[in-house]
Amino acid sequence: MLDRIFAIRSVGTKVALGVVLASSLVVAACGSSPTTGPSGATCPSTTSLSGAGSTFDAPLFSKMFTEYAGIGCKVQVNYQAVGSGAGITQLLQQTVDFGATDAPMKDVDLASSKNGAILHIPVTIGAVAISYNLSQVDAATHLKLTGPVLADIFMGKITFWDDSAIAQLNAGTTLPHQAITVVHRSDGSGTTGIFSHYLAAVSPGWSSKVGSGNTLNWPTGVGAKGNAGVASAVKSTAGAIGYNELAYVLTNTIQYAQVQNKNGDFVTPSLESTKAAAANFSEIPADLRFYIVDAPGVGSYPISGYSWVVIYQKQTNADKGQALANSLWWMVHDGQQYAQALSYVALPTNIVAKDEAQIKAMTCGSGACYKG
């Protein structure tokens, strides 16, 4: 297993790879002055919040929270980018105030809550890029891959880069007879959830033999912790292939593939293609738990997904609940302006409206947590 840090820096966020395991973000919460929050409401007395989970979100959270620290009520938030699975676990254990996950919680996890209903609040949209390391292929070339070919690679059925299944998709590109090293997540990961749900949707073999989820019994490959760990392993291993949130691939200058979508087109992950995938998916359930993989429509990148903050609807500490509601309201409104520069897609207006309803549904004692 390869452990790496995702070190988070402030303005002009960069993804740094180092030698420790976790990263933390410090933010300030709520309104327009040190003593007033949204709509002039008095700031809560809470001075700290804690969260844990998604590394997929971490570059965006870093920028959002750095900016947020300079405004409002100055509530300190410690966010640990430890992976979606760990974030869900810590929420259920009630050791953090919120979790962050790129895969919606399963029914069995929601049923295990000892503190009542859990709400899902979408906070961003991103793409899972297929990262690879082939120095023999021009860096400007994005190899073409299909879902079934990806499934066969990650099941260990295709083991060399010049396999006929890959070569047929990439006529005109000379592929080396280089062994493929599969790199996958070693921790519970919402990025894995998105990727595996995509493979299950396009490959019956993958669906029946491996399945989908945040943790898998991988048929082949080596594990790495976090998006940063996978990015580091792919970049340092000749012939490697992995999967990463797009920001990690771009920041670390790693090669990445075009993937065939449901329309039969080969699409490069980008802001535009991720936005198209979200726009072409219209079946939004009331509880906001859904995947948008293999979305139809021209230009849709097929391995796209939302990411959520997950919270308890009933906040046992009313003052802290108000601080949490204020911070979430800012994230899904003003905080969205920082998405595009970091290769995330800002939330569409219909999702923002649903988020507003979720935040207003948070209860603090006999009233609503959000006072705006």
Key features of this structure:
alpha/beta; D-Maltodextrin-Binding Protein, domain 2; elongated; 372 residues; 29% helix; disordered N terminus; ten-stranded mixed beta sheet; three-stranded mixed beta sheet
What does this protein structure show overall?
The chain folds into two domains: 6-126 and 305-368, Periplasmic binding protein-like II (D-Maltodextrin-Binding Protein, domain 2, 3-Layer(aba) Sandwich), CATH 3.40.190; 128-301, Periplasmic binding protein-like II (D-Maltodextrin-Binding Protein, domain 2), CATH 3.40.190. The N and C termini lie far apart (46 Å). Helix 11 packs antiparallel against helix 12. Strand 13 (258-260) and strand 14 (266-267) form a beta hairpin. It contains twelve helices and 18 strands. The protein has 372 residues and is of the alpha/beta class. It has helices at 58-68, 84-92, 107-111, 147-154, 164-167, 190-202, 204-209, 226-236, 246-251, 271-279, 318-332, 349-360, and strands at residues 6-8, 15-17, 24-27, 48-53, 76-80, 98-101, 118-132, 144-145, 181-185, 222-224, 240-245, 255-256, 258-260, 266-267, 304-312, 314-315, 363-364, 367-368. Strands 3, 4, 5, 6, 7, 9, 10, 11, 12 and 15 form a ten-stranded mixed sheet that branches. The chain has a three-stranded mixed sheet with strand order 8-13-14. A three-stranded mixed sheet has the order 16-17-18, with helices on one face.
